Amino acid sequence: xxxxDIRFYGILDADRLAGxxxxxxxxxxxxxxxxxxxxxxxxxxxxxxxxxxxxxxxxLNGAAPLLINDRVDVALxxxxxxxxxxxxxxxxxxxxxxxxxxxxIGVTIKNEADLAALDPTLVDYGCIGGxxxxxxxxxxxxxxxxxxxxxxxxxxxxxGLPVGAIAGIELANTAPCIGAGADGVALISALYLTAxxxxxxxxxxxxxxxxxxxxxxx
Length: 218
Known about the structure:
Blueprint: E1 8-13, H1 22-31, E2 36-40, H2 46-60, E3 66-69, H3 72-78, E4 82-85, H4 92-99, E5 104-109, H5 112-116, E6 125-128, H6 145-157, E7 163-166, H7 171-179, E8 185-187, H8 189-192, H9 197-215
Parallel strand pairs: 1-2, 1-8, 2-3, 3-4, 4-5, 5-6, 6-7, 7-8
C-alpha cells in the first residue's frame, strides 16, 4: 500500500474549535491544499464523535482521508480512513489486527524510545512533536525543537517511515520544519481559527511545497 500524503495535515479538534462547523472547515481547508485530516474529540461522547466524523466524511466526499484520533471503534463505525494513535492508546499491532491492511494508522513520536518501539510495517506515518510550545494540547514533555525534529527524522528515515511535525507550527516556522526533515506539518489553530481558512491553507501549502522542493523532496 502507498504511504499517505501527510504534507499538509489538518487537525479538527472538537474542543478547540467548539461551536464551529467542522465539516465546512474540513472542506475549506482541503480546497486550500490540506492533504489529510484528523478528528480529535477528547471530551465528547462516542455518539457525538461518530456523528461528527460521518458529517465530515460526507462533506469531503472522498477529497481527502479522515483519520480518528485515539478511537479505533469510532473509525470503524464512521467509515473513516484510519486512526492516529498516541503512546497511551491502543498498540499499533492491535489496531492493525482490528482494522485490517487497508486503513491508515499514524502514531505520535516524542523520543527515541517511541521510534525504537515502532514496527514500520504496521504504521503508515508518524508525527514528531511537540516541536514547539502550543496551547492546543496539554503536553507534559518539553518541545523537541528543530534540532530534536531533525534527529528523530534521521532515525525514522532508516525505516522509510514518513514523519510530520506537530505543535506550534506557524507560517514562519513551516519551512524550517521541512528543512529539518519533516515530510509535512500538522495544524490546528494556525489554520482553523483564522478568518479565511481556504486562503490560509493556500499560503501554508505554498510554503510547504516550496520548502519540499528546496530540499529536493517534492
